[in-house]
Amino acid sequence: MRFKVPQDIDREDKIFWFVSFRQLIYLLIGFFASYGLYTSVGKLYALNLIESVLLWFPLGIAAAFAFFTYQEMTLVQFILTLSEQLFFRPSRRYWQMGSGEPLVSVTQSFRLTEAPAQVLTGKEAVASNTIENLAALLDSHGTKSS
Description:
By secondary structure, the protein is mainly alpha-helical. The chain has six helices and six strands. It folds into two domains: 74 residues, no CATH class; 32 residues, no CATH class.
């Protein structure tokens, strides 16, 4: 017997026109917060148009949380990713060869001097069989300073 396997499992199910359950919850929370502010402040003061619009601001924030997406991330995911990037991860540093100053130790005095470089011949390179000579050869990129 064959079964129908759903293909698009990452998409949320729409329960009311184009609104998913998560979006509906956000909108209801924003609506009830705005309506509660509007009725409680409206009983105490005579509201003009600007104050009425400002009291419905929580509904606008809830609508942003419900419908805003950036690079296929919801606003909640975007805020959490941004806060993780800003507060918990170190900044990335990229190294480019030949750019900037050489690394200088703060505890030791260092003076950059340029000495004439001497190129090793093949026989001298083969004759140096100790690890120190080989390491010096590799560090100097084939040139030996005097």
